[in-house]
Specification:
Mean pLDDT: 89
Strand order of the largest sheet: 3-2-1-4-9-10
Low-confidence stretches: none
Helix content: 25-40%
Distance between the termini: 11 Å
Largest sheet: 6 strands, mixed
Number of strands: 31
Shape: globular
Radius of gyration: 26 Å
């Protein structure tokens, strides 16, 4: 008998489940995610599930972790301070291809060097300029990203730059060619920047998870879910944390399939920060051929085809004051619910809300609080940012008492983006407490905060809502509308019979919205989702019945829907894919592009065989390092040719090797 422990660390809750022999959930439990020290929440969830099941810690034979931490960080624009070394490209690429946005003000060096399409050196690497850059920023950077022109054809300059960075700074380095074998240097550079930004965060998560397992007496291998739903070892996740983006959502799809047996359905997973929607077709999720997209960033990471929206139970509520009626919108940033903070700091929250409620006019920052996130590295802060962080200290404060002038609002935004400060405010979770949909935290504090929000003025000068109940209903209805839009966008994007308009436009089109209401006039217009929706997440049972009614579809809310991510974490397989390329730079020459450098052959078959052998060894080695057993290997050759003078001419070939097996479990 194998007992498998699945753990999912989300923005609000950390879930734990115990699965026996991949066939039966024997216990599940939740604990609040503790961002200041993730081990507290992880340990609490593990202890709770062990106590509930009566299972001895030493009987656990495998532990596996899924997490939305990386996804949430990218959606919210958080992470460590990084530097990009950009070799052989033009400086204008930084702005043109979105690298400036990805860097968020962090430094970049555009450096001479790089290779040609055939793998030959185009320009020597400017080592002196790199050394000067490293000396200038040494000690201020948490991770470096290196991207060189045609590095997938010849990675020599990336490897040389990485060696210099390691020797001079000792900081972690991400090389773009190690994350993807595809061309498109700017896109690989973005992927490398995001990976470097996440390294410290994911390393801390894994370290704290391992510490929690040890503290509870669990001596079992730890796996981590990748964005494609497969498993990898904890060490591999620490080196390539970018592959854990969409880890939690991918695990939820694996869990949804396991829980329901659904063949064709939309899977919608609502968390604290995001809503993740994917299509199950024939029982399998599709892999996004263009690479995972999270928020504004399109990466080169293989992941399930999923639309991630910054919408969750803890989404920030924004007032929409334009127009006469006003209203609210939700997300994309997550804030701490007032009802939760009132449990953790009642001596600050309740008196502040009472005082704000006694003022004749609502204040700009009423109902909002801030606190620092302890244990986060704060290197590279400006003077104003550092002073504001020091003023916040280790206590909870009403935001209005911390911000002394408009200049400090920019500093506060930067501290929030770095994950150094956490904001509390009104969320859908608070609205659900006011409407008695849930009763977990402080409903009184939630009502006080929503009363303050309801006092805000619309464009007509009227108050936004009559009272907290009306305000709460407005927020929950908005969550229903935005969730329905996310599902409609996915359905339109996946629709086989394509439409002429983008999915975002189609979902909001007047005919679509009127059709959902069953319009009857001179025209009869009906729109509905033509397949079921599997609703997952701790709050799915509260919010998703209304979404099903809105979309006129079957809404499936399975048992254990609230811990589907943790279930998916332990029922997946270890899968390692490695790809490489053979090109033909001239007639009769076939060039294999390897990490060690290009290697030429006189015929295509020996070149393809050489590449396949190297990729097979790499994929099998990584699968073994991840703890897989009974490994099966598959190989796909994609050979592109062109017809010239009545014969087929070899242009290029891509070889992909996949090594897959179940994770090895501990015995005894």
């Amino acid at each position: 008998m194998a007992l498998l422990l699945g753990v999912d660390t989300g923005g609000t809750y950390t879930d734990a489940v115990l699965v026996r022999d991949e066939a039966e959930v024997i216990a599940s439990a939740k604990a609040l995610t503790t961002r200041q020290d993730l081990a507290i929440g992880i340990g609490g969830a593990i202890r709770a599930v062990l106590e509930q099941s009566g299972v001895a810690a030493h009987d656990i034979s495998l532990a596996s972790l899924s997490t939305t931490l990386a996804t949430n960080a990218l959606v919210e624009g958080q992470g460590g301070r990084v530097a990009l070394v950009y070799i052989g490209f033009r400086a204008g690429d930084l702005e043109k291809h979105g690298l400036t946005e990805a860097l968020k003000g962090d430094p970049a060096l555009v450096l001479s060097g790089g290779h040609s399409h055939a793998g030959g050196e185009a320009t020597p690497l400017d080592s002196d300029a790199l050394l000067a850059f490293l000396e200038k920023h040494k000690g201020q950077i948490s991770g470096y990203a290196v991207a060189a022109q045609f590095a997938t054809r010849n990675p020599a300059h990336e490897l040389a730059a990485a060696q210099m960075i390691t020797e001079v700074t000792g900081a972690p380095v991400t090389c773009s060619h190690q994350l993807s074998a595809k061309l498109n240097g700017p896109k690989r550079a973005i992927t490398a920047v995001l990976n470097a930004r996440l390294i410290g965060m994911i390393s801390r998560l894994i370290a704290r998870t391992e510490a929690s397992l040890t503290a509870e007496g669990i001596d079992a291998p730890l796996m981590v879910v990748r964005g494609d739903g497969a498993l990898m070892s904890a060490a591999q996740a620490q080196a390539r944390p970018i592959e854990t983006i969409l880890s939690g959502p991918a695990a939820s799809i694996v869990g949804a399939r396991w829980l329901t047996g659904a063949e064709d359905a939309l899977v919608s997973d609502i968390g604290g920060t995001t809503t993740d929607v994917a299509l199950l077709k024939g029982g399998r999720p599709a892999i996004d051929p263009a690479g995972a997209q999270v928020g504004a960033f399109r990466t080169m990471v293989e992941a399930v085809a999923m639309r991630t929206t910054g919408l969750g139970g803890d989404s920030q509520v924004h007032i929409r004051s334009e127009g006469l009626s006003g209203g609210v919108t939700l997300g994309p940033r997550r804030v701490l619910p007032i009802s939760l903070l009132a449990i953790e700091a009642p001596d600050v929250v309740l008196p502040a809300l009472e005082a704000q409620g006694r003022t004749p006019l609502p204040g700009e920052h009423d109902g909002r609080f801030v606190r620092a996130v302890s244990g986060m590295p704060a290197e590279g802060l400006g003077t104003r940012d550092a002073a504001l962080l020091h003023r916040i200290g280790d206590r909870v404060h009403p935001m209005g008492t911390i911000l002394r002038n408009r200049m400090e609002q920019g500093a506060m935004v930067r501290l929030i983006d770095r994950g150094l400060v956490q904001v509390a405010g009104v969320t859908p979770s608070d609205a659900a407490h006011v409407l008695s949909m849930v009763d977990v935290w402080d409903a009184k504090a939630a009502r006080m905060a929503l009363d303050l929000l309801a006092r805000r003025r619309t464009g007509s000068g009227d108050v936004l809502a009559e009272n907290a109940d009306v305000m709460a209903r407005m927020i929950v209805d908005q969550l229903t509308d935005q969730t329905a839009l996310a599902l409609l966008e996915t359905a339109f994007a996946e629709e086989d019979n394509g439409f002429d308009l983008p999915p975002t436009v189609l979902a909001r089109h007047t005919l679509t919205q009127r059709g959902l209401g069953g319009h009857r006039g001179l025209l009869a217009v009906d729109v509905a989702l033509n397949l079921p929706v599997v609703g997952l997440g701790a709050s799915a049972a509260s919010y998703y019945p209304a979404v099903g009614e809105r979309l006129r579809c079957q809404m499936i809310l399975p048992t254990h829907a609230g811990v589907a991510n943790a279930i998916g974490a332990v029922v997946g397989r270890v899968t390692m894919r490695r790809s490489g390329t053979v090109t033909s730079p001239s007639e009769g020459k076939y060039r294999v592009h390897l990490d060690a450098g290009p290697e030429d052959f006189g015929a295509s078959e020996p070149a393809l065989a050489k590449l396949e052998t190297v990729l097979r060894q790499a994929a099998e080695s990584e699968a073994q390092a991840a703890g897989a057993e009974d490994i099966q290997v598959s190989v796909v050759r994609d050979i592109r040719t062109a017809r010239a003078e009545a014969r087929e001419v070899f242009i290029e070939a891509t070889v992909t090797v996949e090594a897959s097996g179940r994770p090895r479990v501990a015995i005894g």
